[in-house]
Amino acid sequence: MKQIQYEGNHFRGVYHAKKDQILCVTIPYSKGWKATVNGNRTKIYKANGMFMGIIMKKGTQSVKLDYETPGLKIGAWISLVAWIGLGIYGLYFEKYRKNLLNQYAMNEYETKGKDTYTQEEAFQSSLNYFNGDELAARVWVNKYALKDSYGNIFEKNPDDMHRRLAKEISRIENRYPNPLSEDTIFEVLRDFKYIVPQGGPMTGIGNEFQIASLSNCFVIGNEGPSDSYGGVMKIDQEQVQLMKRRGGVGHDLSHIRPKGSPVKNSALTSTGIVPFMERYSNSTREVAQDGRRGALMLSVSINHPDSESFIDAKMTEGKVTGANAVSYTHLTLPTIA
Fold first, then answer.
1. Residue 111 above 50 pLDDT?
2. Based on C-alpha coordinates, what's the Rg of the chain?
3. Which of 1, 22, 262, 285 could be bridged to 13 by S-S, CB 3.0 to 4.6 A?
């Protein structure tokens, strides 16, 4: 052959045959190769067991070989159709999901029959209630106004909240002799004059949209020995369950054995209390409470060998960000005669 050109998957050349014969090209035979002779498609045969052979007529012939991965075009078309189908399905599913959520939300609101307010409407009403105190108005709207998972606000100022509390407390009062009326309870709560409820009761009492604790803070822990992964995870589970219901949690780490203590698991020695500080801290950060993370207080006895590491971990920026920490000592209070 003469004028041979070979680049990537393309082979070109000119061949002069003195008679009809088979041209054997020393390129391994593959179904992906296509041959043309003088511009006409020509069948490729397997020659010498592994190479490609082309039947050539007498005379000078222009030979062209091109390789294309078998099934490449079909695969590309299948992929294109699949992506188009996936896109159509995604659009349809998203539309279906939104319609379902809207339908569910409309049914829920129609059943409850409550008026709704925008964030700005509730803020302006609360601003008037608090005599222009923007911080108080914003905190009340964000933390204590009755709202649902779709962002709808059902109370425009603390008067609405106090009416909700009074109505629910009155419902319970009516189970007993000489109950206090709803209006009497409302007057006691109104303007925070005589009773200022904690955040939990203000949010949770009479709330049909959330399962919330009516207590603010909890101290948890295991009875008896709990220096094990089972004990650690049990406390982690308890704190998460309380936090998701808006409760703040505190627990002590003094029962966890110090770093380097012998254990019988694969590690052979204990990691100490700092990794468990981070575990509890991360769990707290994961739990959202109406747009804010949970609240956690960790403590350890000053007599614990890891107490300094406990303090250092909390003082290291970015290490334990989901918990406050305190190290304590046992004090004996003087007797006052």
1. no
2. 38
3. 1
